[in-house]
Amino acid sequence: MTRKEFNATAPFTDSIRKMDDPTIKSICAPSSGVHIVLPGYYSPEQMGLLDPSTSDGRVIFFLPWQRHTIAGTTDLPCEVTHNPAPSEDEIQFILSEIKHYLNQDVEVRRGDVLSAWSGIRPLVSDPNKDETQALARNHIVHISASNLITIAGGKWTTYRAMAEHTIDAAVKACDLQPERPESVTTLLKIEGGQGWSPTMYIRLVQDFGLECEVAQRVAKSYGDRAFAVAKMASLTGKRWPVIGNRIHPDFPYIDAEIRYGVREYACNAVDMIARRLRLSFLNVQAAQEALPVVCDIMAEELKWSKDEKQKQINKAREFLALEMGQAVKRIAKDQVHVNLSSEEVKKYVKRFEIIDKDKKGYVSINDIRRALKSYGDGDVSGEQLHEILKEIDTNMNGQVELDEYLQMMSAIKTGEVSYSRFARMAELEEQKEEAAQFKRKITVDRSGGGL
C-alpha cells in the first residue's frame, strides 16, 4: 500500500521533515509577528489601512476588528516555541509606525494597547528551487522520497487554496483515484454556514429573548449553530434580556458559549478565553476579570475539583501575563524620574487617599467609576474605565498604586505626558472633598462664640 502522510505543522515543519529524513536542509525560517489591539475609535467601522511595502520592507496594517482596532506587524527572526510572547520593543515599533498614518492631532498612547500577542510566521524557501530563492510568504508543497507531503508557509486567509494544492499534489504523487475530477473546496461552507443569513440574529432576539448585541455576535460566530447555543443560555431573571448572562459586562459573550465550547471539546480555560471566545485577544484585562465566571461554568460542566479549577485559573493567568502581553511593562519604573517636591508629593498623596475611600492602599476600577459618577459623568462605559486605568496602571495588575500615580504626575510635570484623565479626576475629587469639609464647619453664631 502506498504511504500517504501529510506534514502541515507551520513553524514545526522542519522538525517533522527531519524525522522523515535527517539529512535534508531546513526550508522554514520562523519569524515573530506581533499584533496589538487598540480601542475601536482609532478606525472607522468599514475602513482600514494596509501598507504592504514600508520603507524597511515590513507590512503595516490598521484595521477594524471585533469593534476594536487591530494593528501590526513586526517581522523578526525568532526561535520556535509553543509559547511565543510579545516584547515591549515590538509593541513600541508598531505604535511608532502607525503614528505616520494618522492625523497629527491623534495621540497614539501606550496605555491604549488592550492586548498584544506574538505569532510565529513560517516563512519558507522552496526546496524545489535553487538556494538563491528568497524566503516567501506564500506557501509551497514538497513531496519527499518517502511520499511525505509537506505544506508550508501561507496565511490563514489562503487556507482553502493551500488545502487544494496539497490534495492535488497527493493525488498526483500517490496515484490516487478521487471521486471527483476537480477540487470542490470553494463550494463548501464551513460548519454553521448552511442556514446563516445576515438577518438571522433577529430570530435569536424574537424567539429566544437574547439582547440584540449578543444575538448579532452569536450569529456571526456560530452561524446556524447559534440556535443550539441560545438553547443553553440561562435565564437572566430580568424583564429583558430574557436569557443570556454576560460573562463580562463590557463584552457580548454569554454563559451558554462556555457550555457549548465544552460540548465541542474545549477542555481548559486558556482554550476557552483565547480560541473559543477570543476575549483575551480583544482585552486582556477583561479576560482576567471574566476568568472566575468562565472557570465556574467549566468546572460544573467538566466536574473539576476545587484544586483543578484553581490550577486552570492559574494557568490562564500565566497565559494572559506572558502570551497576551499583560506582563509587558509599558513604562519601566526606572524610566520615569520622580522629580516632585515634598509639597507636591504630599498634595498628590492626599488626593490619592481621597479616591481610595476604603483605605485599601490602591485605587480600583470601582473607585474610578464612583469618582467619575460623583462629579457628573454618569454611568461611564466599561471600555472608558479600562482606558483611564490603563493609562496609569504600568504594572498591569488592574489597579493603581500610589507610586504609579506619582510617576504619572511627574511625567505631566516634565511634559512627557500632556494630559491624564485620572489626574484630572483626582484633582476634582480633592476639590469636592474640600467643599464638603467647608460645609461641615460649625459657624461662629451656632457655636455660641462672639458677642
Automatic annotation (TrEMBL):
It comes from the Eukaryota. Pathway: Polyol metabolism; glycerol degradation. InterPro entries: DAO_C (IPR031656), DAO_C_sf (IPR038299), EF-hand-dom_pair (IPR011992), EF_Hand_1_Ca_BS (IPR018247), EF_hand_dom (IPR002048), FAD-dep_OxRdtase (IPR006076), G3P_DH_FAD-dep (IPR000447). Its EC number is 1.1.5.3. Its cofactor is FAD. Keywords: Calcium, FAD, Flavoprotein, Metal-binding, Mitochondrion, Oxidoreductase, Repeat, Transit peptide. The keyword Flavoprotein applies. One of its GO terms (molecular function) is calcium ion binding. One of its GO terms (biological process) is glycerol-3-phosphate metabolic process. One of its GO terms (cellular component) is mitochondrion. Residues 343-378, 380-415 form the EF-hand domain. It is found in: Mitochondrion. Belongs to the FAD-dependent glycerol-3-phosphate dehydrogenase family. PANTHER family: GLYCEROL-3-PHOSPHATE DEHYDROGENASE, GLYCEROL-3-PHOSPHATE DEHYDROGENASE, MITOCHONDRIAL. This is Glycerol-3-phosphate dehydrogenase, mitochondrial. The lineage of its organism: Eukaryota, Metazoa, Ecdysozoa, Arthropoda, Hexapoda.
